Amino acid sequence: MRSLACLAALLAIAPPAVAPAATITVRFTGSVNFTHLALSSPFSVGDPVGGSFQMTTTAIDGLPADPSIGRYVADSTLTFGGYSTASESIDVTVLNGAFDALRLLARSCISPCQMAAGLPFHNFRLLLFDATGTALADDSVPTSLDVADFDASPASLATLTFLDGTIPRDVTAMISTVSVTVPEPGALVLVALAAAGGAARRRGRQPSDR
């Protein structure tokens, strides 16, 4: 009981802490449905596909003047069968308007990029599309996603591209699940309490006015 009273006293004297940014994790899974002949090894139709990207709920919108388009940068990982890559950054575009779409685009990977059939990695793209414009609430960072809210084939599609000289060679996959993991509210409360406690302690250490 004494500890609860101390906590209550701390909250009473501490200034309201700014709500901490939550780091969300978006995961997707699917399976390969097409591979170019040049990439038939190591890829095969039916290979499992999976990936994830992380970003904060307070990520800065690269297009703040346009309320229908949100553009963000996130960290990502990707696996196509036995091929995997960790992207240094991935562009996440959220479209909310006449139609809704979530687009991921990765143009780079942590060096050295893994090659496939001797061909270098070029980019990765994922597109979820909804012609009804009801899948997304706005152009902000999505905190919930359900692949069932988007259109069926061929919209929910992931593409991994390699370069054969200057010619792109693709492996595509149908996306079957998309999920978003958001930290539990209790964890965010603890972070906020810690921030409030730290602010109170810093105030307590300040020298008194002379």
Describe this protein's structure:
With 210 residues, the protein is α+β, with helices and mostly antiparallel strands. The chain has one domain. It is built from 2 helices and 8 strands; from the N terminus they run αββββββββα. The protein has helices spanning 2-13, 185-205, and strands at 23-35, 48-56, 69-80, 83-96, 100-106, 121-130, 157-164, 167-181. An 8-stranded antiparallel beta barrel has the order 1-2-3-4-5-6-7-8. A hairpin with a 3-residue loop joins strand 4 and strand 5 (100-106).
* Tally of separate domains: 1
> H/E series, N to C?
HEEEEEEEEH
The portion of residues assigned to helices is 10-25%
Shape from CA axes?
Answer: globular
- What is the rounded Rg? 22 Å
Q: Note the quaternary state here.
A: single chain
Count the strands? 8
Class based on secondary structure composition and strand pairing: alpha+beta
Key terms for this structure?
8 strands; single chain; globular; 2 helices; 210 residues; 8-stranded antiparallel barrel; alpha+beta
Helices and strands in order, then pairings?
Elements: H1 2-13, E1 23-35, E2 48-56, E3 69-80, E4 83-96, E5 100-106, E6 121-130, E7 157-164, E8 167-181, H2 185-205
Antiparallel strand pairs: 1-2, 1-8, 2-3, 3-4, 4-5, 5-6, 6-7, 7-8
TL;DR?
The chain is an alpha+beta fold. Helices cover 16% and strands 42% of the residues.
